Amino acid sequence: MIITEKSEVLPFAHYGLKQADLDSLYIPSEFSDIIPQLTKIGDTIYYSKPNSIYCMTNELIGSYLAKKLELDTVDYQIGKRQCDGQIFALSKLFYEDGYQYQSALEFLREHHYKNCFGMVQSSFKKTALCYYHLRTLKAYKGTPFYDSCMKLIVVDLKMVQRDRHDKNVIIQIDSRGKVDLAPIYDYGRSYSYFYENNAYVNPFAFIRFNKVSLELLFRRYPDLRSYVEFLRKISIDEILTAIEKEKRVSFKEEMRQDY
Fold first, then answer.
1. What whole-number distance in Å separates Cα of residue 209 and Cα of residue 213?
2. Residues 245, 201: contact at Cβ < 8 Å?
């Protein structure tokens, strides 16, 4: 990805927020570790994450695919830190007053499996498959939450996402108890051939290349197939071209070939 003066880039200083800014936020204590990465540009507060060009591209691809499926997602902006020119993925905070936010692990423990600690310590290392438990999802069939989970699984399959661990799936509950996924974020460690030594190993990265396992997944979750067929029709060239147009960036031919 080549960034030029015409690119849609937000310059920022990243000095950290004042206490008055922090007091106005609704970040749950479970996710307070993001506070050092918050920055304010104008009147808007962003979460800023340093990215390689490939990670940044993956964030933009993931957001693009999620929006194509009408899955709620953060809309990444490209940020450039003024002191050194480092590239960051910037996303607006989505935490709002009146909602409860929980990681997938905490939601599962509180609402479905009181003693799921052993399950989470499996070889999957806190990855999304632990939370897309068949009985749990079937209890929500016909709800927006179920549909959101189906769409997220398909986006992860498409991108060979390897980093959908417990804090990368946030459950949002409104004042009436309605459950859904919070906007999806963190698509950076996708297309696994870039990240052979990634700390987390999402089983979906392997299911994608195993015809038998993939067919079993479709049999358990028949809703997945139509979403898979929809995303399959979207080529990487179409995605990268759309990103180039939206963000006013360009991709070298060899980078397109990498995907």
1. 9
2. no
From the first residue on, what is the mean pLDDT of each consecutive set of 10 residues in the chain (259 residues)?
A: 87 86 88 91 91 91 96 95 92 92 82 52 45 64 90 88 80 92 91 57 65 80 88 93 94 87
Residues 6 or more apart in contact with residue 107 via CB below 8 angstroms: 131, 171
**Which residues, including other chains, have CB under 8 Å from residue 232's CB and lie 6 or more apart?**
158
Cβ contacts of 25-33, under 8 Å, gap ≥ 24: 25/93, 25/95, 26/95, 26/96, 26/97, 26/99, 27/93, 27/95, 28/95, 28/100, 28/101, 28/102, 30/101, 30/102, 30/103, 30/106, 30/167, 31/95, 31/101, 31/103, 31/167, 31/170
3-state secondary structure of 161: coil
Helices and strands (H and E) in the chain: how many: 11, 8
Residue 147: C-alpha distances to residues 20, 30, 49 (Å): 38, 25, 28
190 and 239 Cβ atoms separated by less than 8 Å? no
Give the dihedral sign, CA 99/103/106/108.
positive
Q: Please work out, in degrees rounded to the nearest 5, the angle formed at the alpha carbon of residue 25 by the alpha carbons of 23 and 28.
A: 105
| Run of H or E residues at 44 | strand 44-50
CB 32 within 8 A of CB 167: no
Measured CA to CA, the distance from residue 55 to residue 88 in angstroms comes to: 10
Tokens of 56: 């940044």
How far apart are the C-alpha atoms of 207 and 30, rounded to whole Å? 30
- The residue type found at 149 is C
